[in-house]
Specification:
ten-stranded mixed beta sheet, 12 strands, alpha/beta, 18% strand, single chain, 13 helices, Spore Coat Polysaccharide Biosynthesis Protein SpsA, Chain A, two-stranded antiparallel ribbon
C-alpha cells in the first residue's frame, strides 16, 4: 500500500487541487487531508464536491477511485505541521502502508514520479527517504537538498547581505553538484518527502516540538543516521515556493524559534555528525554522485550512516514516540 498526506491551514480546494490530481493519477492508494483550520472549514464540502465531479465526469480518474483509491479528510486541532502529518502517518501505518509521501499543498507532478520513486526504493532497501528534483513553475531549479546547517548558515541567510555570504551559501545549497547528481544528503526539504514506512516507525515520525519549520531537517538527519536519504534528480516535480517566513513577522518568529530548538537539540557549534556527514556529501559530489551499487549494507539490509560516523548524538538525541501521535479525529469525509 502507498499512502500520502497533506496538511492544510485555511486552504480552499483550489489551493491544492493540482496536487490532488497528481495523486489521483499516481499509484497512491490513500490520501489523508489534515485540515488545521481554526474555524469551521468549507474544505470538507469542497472535497466531497470534487470527488463527485471526478466520479461523474472524468473517466480516467473515476477508474482510479473505483479501483479502491480513498481520499480521507480530518479537521484536527492545530498541533503543527509535523503533528498533522504524524496523525496521518499513524493511520497509514495501521492500514499497512509500505511507503508514505509527505507533500505540500502547493506541489504538483507528472504520473511518472511516484512509480519511479517506488521502483527505486523497492530495489534499494538501504534507502529510507527520497526527494526528486524540485522546479519552480517557470522551470528553474529549487535548491532543496542541503548540508546540515551551522548557526552561521541559518542566521547569515536571514540577516547578512547575499554577496557577503555567497560562497558559503553555494556550498550549503550543494550548488557544485549542478543539481544533476543523485546524492545521499542529510537535509531534504519538507515540500515532498517520500518515506519508507519502516524508517518512519524506527525514528518515531516527526518531532512535534517543531511546530513549523526545521522539522524537515530534523527528521531527515534522524533517518540519515540509519538509512540513505537521497536527492534523485532523474525525475522532477513543481513547487510554488514563496519564502513566507521572509515576508511575515509571525512566520519569521516560528522559523527562528524552530531553528533555536533545532540547535538546542543537536548542538550549536559542536556537532560531530554534521561535520562528518557534510564532508562525506561534498566528497560524493567531487566523485560524481552517489552509487547505490557500492553501498555497504548492514545485516538488516539497510545502510547505516551512524555506523560509519558513530557519535553521541546518533544515539542520545531525543526521539519522538509514535505513541505521541493523536488517536482521535473530529470529522471524516
Amino acid at each position: 500500500m502507498i499512502t500520502a498526506s497533506i496538511v492544510t491551514y485555511d486552504h480552499h480546494l483550489l489551493d491544492f487541487e493540482p496536487v490532488l490530481r497528481s495523486l489521483f493519477a499516481s499509484p497512491v492508494d490513500v490520501v489523508y487531508v489534515i485540515d488545521h483550520s481554526e474555524h469551521m472549514s468549507e474544505l470538507k464540502a469542497e472535497l466531497q464536491e470534487f470527488a463527485e465531479h471526478v466520479l461523474e465526469g472524468e473517466p480516467q480518474l473515476r477508474r482510479k477511485v473505483n479501483a479502491g483509491f480513498k481520499l480521507i479528510y480530518f479537521q484536527h486541532e492545530n498541533n503543527g505541521y509535523g503533528g498533522g502529518h504524524n496523525y496521518a502517518i499513524r493511520m497509514a501505518a495501521e492500514a499497512g502502508s509500505q511507503f508514505h509521501l509527505v507533500v505540500n499543498p502547493d506541489v504538483w507532478f507528472g504520473p511518472e514520479v511516484m512509480p519511479e520513486l517506488i521502483r527505486y526504493m523497492t530495489l534499494h532497501p538501504e534507502v529510507g527517504q527520497m526527494m526528486p528534483k524540485v522546479l519552480y513553475p517557470n522551470g528553474s531549479t529549487q535548491r532543496v537538498a542541503k548540508l546540515l546547517p551551522t548557526p552561521l548558515d541559518f542566521f547569515g541567510r536571514f540577516f547578512l547581505p547575499e554577496f557577503f555570504f555567497s560562497k558559503r551559501n553555494a556550498k550549503f545549497e550543494l550548488r557544485p553538484s549542478g543539481f544533476t547528481m543523485t546524492l545521499d544528503v542529510p537535509f531534504l526539504s519538507g515540500c515532498f518527502m517520500m518515506f519508507r514506512m519502516s524508517a518512519l516507525k524506527e525514528v518515531g515520525g516527526f518531532d512535534e516540538d517543531f511546530f513549523l519549520y526545521a522539522e524537515d531537517i530534523d527528521i531527515t538527519r534522524r533517518i540519515h543516521a540509519r538509512y540513505r536519504t537521497l536527492y534523485y534528480p532523474s525525475i522532477a516535480i513543481y513547487h510554488k515556493f514563496s519564502r513566507a517566513s521572509h515576508h511575515s513577522l509571525k512566520l519569521f518568529w516560528f522559523h527562528a524559534s524552530s531553528i533555536v530548538k533545532y540547535f538546542n537539540k543537536w548542538g550549536w557549534w559542536s556537532d560531530n555528525e554534521r561535520k562528518a556527514w557534510n564532508s562525506r556529501c561534498m566528497k560524493e559530489i567531487a566523485q560524481g554522485g552517489y552509487d547505490a551499487a557500492s553501498t555497504t549494507k548492514t545485516q538488516s539490509g539497510t545502510a547505516s550512516n551512524s555506523a560509519q560516523y558513530p557519535t553521541a548524538s546518533a544515539t542520545s538525541a531525543p526521539r519522538p514516540s509514535m505513541a505521541k501521535m493523536p488517536a482521535t479525529a473530529d470529522t471524516r469525509a
